[in-house]
Each structure stands twice: as structure tokens, then as C-alpha cells.
Amino acid sequence: MLAECLRADLVEAGHAIGVSVLLPGPVRTNIFTDAAATGTAGEDLRSSLAAMLAEHGTSPDEVAALALDAVERDQFWVHPHPDLSSAFIEAQHLELVGGL
Fold first, then answer.
1. Which InterPro entries does this one have (predicted)?
2. Is there a contact between 23 and 85 (Cβ–Cβ < 8 Å)?
3. Which domain holds residue 82?
4. How many domains does the chain contain in total?
């Protein structure tokens, strides 16, 4: 919502500044490999998350190229993982509709 408001404000003010939102998703980084873990449960969680990124994560280069392309095309929503985006959008929709 914040980015949508920013984009609308910039358009209304006549500024030629684009806004793009890079949606979160798994990216193959060392964030969990390098993370400190406490105890067996913490180490098991850290290891499973590191394995998930290794198996399902998108490479940082792919995400960077996708983001740059989106910015150059003035694309608002950037979906590095369309399958995860679809599930998130559906969950958000259900939550919003449930509040009516």
C-alpha cells in the first residue's frame, strides 16, 4: 500500500519517477548458512532453511536482472517467484474479503 500511494503521489505531482515493488521469495544466498544458531532445534531450522534456498532459491543474478528489467520497463509489481506470489495474493484477498 505504501508503494502504491507513493506511485500515485508521484504521478499526480507530475514527476517522472517510477516505483517498483520487488516481492519477497527465496534467493540463493548464504543468509542461513552464515546465521548463528543456538541449540539443536536452532541448528536444525537453520540447516533446513539453507537447504530450501539451495534447492528452490533463485540466483541473485536472476533476481537482479528481473528487477532491473522491471525498473527499465516501469513495471510496478516484480514477481521473482510467480507461484509464491499467487499463493500470497490469494491469501491476502481472502483476508481482505473476510473483513467486509
1. NAD(P)-bd_dom_sf
2. yes
3. 2-98
4. 1
Q: For residue 69, give the C-alpha cell.
A: 528489467
Cα-based torsion angle of the residue sequence 41, 45, 51, 53 in order, rounded to the nearest 10 degrees: -170
Instruction: Please name the residue that has the C-alpha cell 537453520.
Output: 46
**pLDDT for res 14:** 97
Which three three-digit cell numbers place residue 8? 500515485
Within 8 A by CB and 6+ apart from 66, the residues are 78, 80
3-state secondary structure 21-86: EECCCCECCCCCCCCCCCHHHHHHHHHHHHHHHHHHCECHHHHHHHHHHHHHCCCCEECCCHHHHH
68-90 confidence digits (pLDDT tens) = 999 999 999 999 988 888 888 89
CA–CA separation, 81 and 24 (whole Å): 8
Q: Give the whole-angstrom CA distance, residue 95 versus residue 97.
A: 6
